[in-house]
Design brief:
Blueprint lengths: L5 H14 L2 H7 L18 H14 L3 H11 L3 H13 L15 E4 L2 E3 L4 H12 L7 E5 L6 H15 L2 E6 L8 H12 L4 H9 L5 H16 L6 E6 L7 H16 L6 E6 L13 E5 L5 H14 L6 H12 L8 H18 L2
Length: 355
């Protein structure tokens, strides 16, 4: 796209100023190079001056389209979206046809609905996705039951597809979860098309103990990972369950240590129900989030955001009625059964009130 003209730059600065306060804009620019962050300007500078200097910098580096994508990801207002589209079109940029893949957490797959804006997770996934330019080799998420740990993987898969990354998830929750280090090793090797014959010969034969099996498998994976041309995100889910003990205590720390030493090639690790920063040798390569469950205000914010996207203004009583319908008799903290029920009722009310 062309450089912004004077009027276009003025229009963009005004648009940003109308839709962001300083903390909100700071968050929107969080993952850009330090020189492009709002914090690179003095707090004594007015917001208008800081916005103008930031926009000039993005324009000089031909990154106005990236700036627009970051602004959309932070604020879903239709007026912001339409204003950005008009400015970009006038400057010769193609109108974006997809949303930022890191946009929001997907609560339900019936259909995919974004309810809780997991800001920290979105920022982590942007960093995680860069890989070649990033220090991050592991992402871990902890939190109370039904807080969205497993649903985080739905968003991660969406982001992985955007970056062209293959994904593999092993879930250790009963009744059908993977059990033990050996089963995990076989599934990883099969999915990544690593040689099963050498896995049997070098790792699994002679039925070693779980501890020895974890040691041998990780050493084997280090060697075989050098042959992987494609990037992989390996997800181990439900690590906080008792059934995952051997994998959690014996396999995961070894994987993290090898990842920290740069020995897993194109494999990055996603751990759900486990804090990877507890492994001291791996802390430098870990992104971690302590997730929280949904509360009533999250649904209030969600319905307001849905209405804003459609250019509809909802009365406070309308929002309250919609939240009451979706939550029914459930109250936070929501358990898994409550979240399933909420996930079923949410699309119903959206279809009726915000078609």
């Amino acid at each position: 796209m062309k450089k912004l003209s004077g009027p276009q730059m003025k229009e963009l600065c005004q648009l940003i100023g109308d839709h962001f306060d300083r903390p909100g804009l700071e968050m929107a620019l969080h993952f850009f190079e330090p020189a492009r962050k709002l914090s690179s300007y003095s707090e004594a500078d007015s917001l208008d001056i800081a916005i103008f200097e930031a926009v000039k910098r993005f324009d000089r580096e031909d990154e106005v389209a990236q700036l627009a994508a970051a602004l959309r990801a932070r604020n879903a207002a239709a007026s912001l979206r339409d204003g950005l589209d008009a400015i970009l079109a006038a400057a010769g940029a193609a109108k974006p046809d997809t949303a930022d893949p890191c946009d929001e957490l997907l609560l339900s797959s019936r259909p995919l609905l974004a309810v809780l804006d997991r800001v920290e997770l979105r920022l982590h996934l942007r960093e995680f996705g860069k890989m070649a330019e990033s220090w991050a080799r592991a992402l871990s998420i902890t939190g109370d039951p039904a807080c969205g740990k497993s649903h985080s993987w739905t968003l991660a898969q969406h982001v992985a597809a955007h970056f062209g990354v293959k994904t593999l998830k092993l879930d250790f929750a009963p009744p059908y979860g993977a059990t033990g280090v050996g089963a995990a090793a076989e599934r990883i090797a099969f999915a990544m098309r690593l040689p099963s014959a050498s896995l049997q010969r070098d790792v699994l034969q002679d039925a070693p103990t779980e501890a020895k099996l974890a040691e041998k498998f990780v050493a084997w994976l280090v060697g075989e990972s050098r042959t992987l041309q494609e990037r992989w995100w390996l997800c181990l889910d439900s690590l906080d369950r008792p059934e995952a003990q051997s994998v959690r205590d014996l396999l995961v720390p070894r994987l993290l240590i090898e990842a920290a030493d740069g020995n897993l090639g194109n494999i990055q690790i996603v751990l759900l129900g486990y804090n990877a920063r507890t492994v001291r040798a791996a802390r430098a390569i870990v992104l971690h989030e302590n997730a929280r469950g949904l509360d009533r205000q999250d649904f209030v914010n969600f319905f307001k955001a849905c209405a804003a996207r459609k250019g509809v203004e909802l009365a406070l009583q309308d929002v309250s009625d919609m939240v009451a319908y979706v939550l029914k008799d459930h109250a936070p903290p929501f358990d898994h059964a409550a979240m399933d029920d909420i996930g079923d009722r949410l699309p119903e009310i959206l279809k009726e009130v915000l078609p």
